[in-house]
Amino acid sequence: MKHENQPINDALKKALETTLRTAAEFKGEDTVEYLTGVTTAAISLLRAVDDGRLVYGYLRSALASLGQESTVNANPHGGDLGVSVHMGASMANPEMLHSVEELRRELHSANEQLIERDIKLADSKHALQPIIAAVGQIAGAHLRKDAPKVNKLLNEFCKKYVRLAGQRSDAIH
Prior knowledge:
Number of helices: 5
Strand content: under 5%
């Protein structure tokens, strides 16, 4: 099992370096097409490792990480796309645990991650409750065909919850 203080292995280092260097050679949509191809090939190859269990766990972890905050660093080789860096949940590979001590350490880590996730979920629910209530009021007024009330409620909603990021009208937060 890899831990933070252990160096990444040579194969992983080579894969990351090759992908970053090659992606920097492309521009725009070609970069996305290249990365899509690399991802498709990698997933296809990984499916053969253990009937897809490894890739399934990897993809679940990757999807979960999309909800995490991240920073984007420049690709050290240049190019259009930066490298998104985030701290996601770590997943233990049960096949790599060989002692009770390792199992306890991973169980403790999993428990901490679950507690942190529960706190984030509770915070999200708390933040979303008034938004959901406001949308419910807007929908109710719309269904009653009360256009002045819909307009009033939408104006209040926008004042309270909608922020424009920059000058683009599609950059609403």
